[in-house]
Design a protein that fits this description.
337 residues; TIM Barrel; 15 helices; alpha/beta; globular; 2 domains; 8-stranded parallel β-sheet; binds flavin mononucleotide
């Protein structure tokens, strides 16, 4: 059953929350291309409580397309998290997702993100209190544990389920692993066996539609969440639903749309050009001339220059859409901060 709280989703494919990526403009594209749910990137509960204008910007969403709208919050203090969730609800949030997986020190040192895995009762308190205060479905996103000595995902899931968690997203690496090695999908199968009633969102290393099918078949997870494979490739959701890969012309049109929305979202032309460079590099992935385009993209300093470079790059790429890929993997490290 594709249900999260009161919402029935049209398919099992979810865009992963990604800082600096899962902003309103990119989420809208992913929804339009078929993603069933696109949570926001992690938003600071402290920032929301202080009505920090920069933080409030993260709450902007497109109510026509983003349904249901899931807001991911991070924080360790239940009172602050409840207040932030209420502010999110006032701004339209329909699901509150709690980040319990972020490995970054700035986040964990305040007892938030993956540090919550070290204190499962507090993690459960967050779910219970946010649910009680907002009446919204509350989901959580965890890793398999803090490190190899404390892979306590079963204990965490048990307490979260008892607290009324509406769905659990699991990236089965420990905090200590960061992004190294392979996601351990056996964790997902183990969770589904122990908690068959808890909607499970499997995540980690899904790169192709075949991977997504394999994850569903081998683990029994209800949903599949895709992160890095969607960077520069929101069409992955269309392909997951049996649709075609994009042509270079189609890529060009969509990148220009993404850029226009990003400019408007950012509100400052130079800042927008700079923060869009990583997207340009990802969109060029695998096309002829990608390396030279990336080098050029890092020098671009006006919206006109970005649009010109995009037209030139995709025109050349159109001439030879099957040119061999110049690189193996999308480089996402720049976005990890
Ligand atoms: C650039 C980047 C930013 C991320 N930001 C967040 C975040 O804000 N919240 C979160 O829960 N996970 C975040 N993650 C983790 C992803 O949601 C996901 O769990 C992870 O990338 C594994 O999935 P994948 O193998 O499909 O990429 C981030 C990952 C990347 C690559």
């Amino acid at each position: 059953m594709l249900r999260i709280g009161p919402y029935t989703l049209p398919n099992p494919f979810i865009l992963a929350p990604m800082a600096g990526v899962s902003e309103q403009p990119f989420r809208v594209l992913a929804f339009e291309l078929g993603a069933a749910l696109c949570p926001t990137e992690l938003v600071s509960s402290q920032g929301l409580m202080r009505i920090n204008q920069r933080t409030l910007r993260y709450l902007r969403f497109d109510a026509r397309v983003e349904r249901p709208y899931s807001l991911q919050l991070y924080g360790g203090d239940p009172e602050a998290m409840v207040r932030a969730a209420l502010i999110g609800q006032e701004h339209g949030a329909q699901i509150i997702d709690i980040n319990m997986g972020c490995p970054v020190k700035k986040v964990t040192k305040n007892g938030a993100g993956s540090a919550l895995l070290c204190d499962p009762p507090r993690a459960a308190t967050l779910v219970r209190e946010i649910r009680a205060a907002t009446g919204l479905p509350v989901t959580a996103k965890i890793r398999s544990g803090w490190d190899e000595h404390s892979r306590n995902y079963l204990q965490v899931a048990e307490l979260l389920q008892a607290a009324g968690c509406a769905a659990l997203a699991v990236h089965p690496r420990t905090r200590a692993q960061g992004y190294s090695g392979q996601a351990d999908w056996s964790v997902l199968a183990d969770l589904k066996r122990h908690f068959p009633e808890l909607p499970l969102i499997g995540n980690g290393d899904v790169k192709t539609p075949a991977d997504a099918r394999r994850m569903q078949e081998t683990t029994g997870c209800d949903f599949v969440m895709i992160g890095r494979a969607a960077l520069g490739n929101p069409w992955v959701f269309r392909e997951l639903l049996g649709g075609p890969a994009p042509t270079p012309e189609e890529r060009c049109v969509l990148v220009l749309r993404h850029f226009a929305a990003h400019l408007e979202f950012t509100g400052d032309a130079l800042a927008a050009v700079r923060s869009f460079r990583k997207h340009l590099a990802w969109y060029a992935h695998g096309l002829r001339g990608a390396a030279a385009f990336r080098a050029e993209a890092n020098q671009l300093d006006s919206p006109e220059a970005v649009r010109d470079a995009l037209h030139r790059f995709f025109r050349a790429a159109s001439a030879d859409p099957h040119a061999p890929s110049e690189e193996q993997d999308v480089d996402y490290r720049a976005a990890l901060g």
